[in-house]
Amino acid sequence: MPEAARRREAERRAQQNARTPQPSGTNPSAESPPPLEVLVGTMVRGILEVVAGVRDPEQLARWMSEEVYRHLLTRTSLATRARSARRVQVYRVMHEIRSVRLSSPRDGVIEATVVVSGRMRTRAVALRLEALERRWRITALSLL
């Protein structure tokens, strides 16, 4: 990994650690996001890492419906082929979550839009989470 990339990774981790929510039982600050926003941001960051080729898609399989998982595998294989055709090396991209917007059209369903900035581009990700068997699963996903 180049030295500049190591420095950026260290800076990103320092910023992320500074934003980590307080453990329960302490007085959280007004800026700490609710747990659902944290979950959505973490899932989006993981999805973008899968598409970038630095994370194994299997790690996210339990959090997605079968249809979404297959779509992600297809998108990942296309991105891998495009990188190999252009002879682009896989490297870890630092993604910064700019905003998370949540809405609940009905009980047990959350629709989220997330704006994420990387080194070279800003993307929007839309996803739908449904409460299935006492946990949230992504049932629809769109990467813009």
Describe what this molecule looks like in 3D:
The chain has helices at residues 3-18, 35-52, 66-86; strands spanning 96-106, 109-117, 122-132, 135-143. It contains 3 helices and 4 strands. The longest helix has 21 residues, at 66-86. With 144 residues, it is an alpha+beta fold. A hairpin with a 2-residue loop joins β1 and β2. The protein is 38% helix and 28% strand. α2 packs across α3 (66-86). Strands 1-2-3-4 form a 4-stranded antiparallel sheet.
Considering the chains and any ligands shown, give keywords for the structure.
144 residues, 3 helices, 38% helix, alpha+beta, four-stranded antiparallel β-sheet
